[in-house]
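Quick one, T. Sequence first:
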Amino acid sequence: MKLEVKKIGNSTGLILPKDLLTKLNLQQGQWLHVTELPDGGVRLTPYDPDFDKAMAIVDDIMDEYKDTLRALAQ
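Structure tokens:
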């Protein structure tokens, strides 16, 4: 699916087609979670506060054990 980046008022945004909103089970006013992928792309998923909390915990763990994780990755 190809989407155009447009000027919306004083901002820049995307207009999501109705079929994509249905597929993501989204309605106006809801939030999306954007995840960066290793290949440079992004993944859009419905925002889940529990997932956001879990990712914050994972980030803290990765920061705390970055040297250990780096050594394990070799």
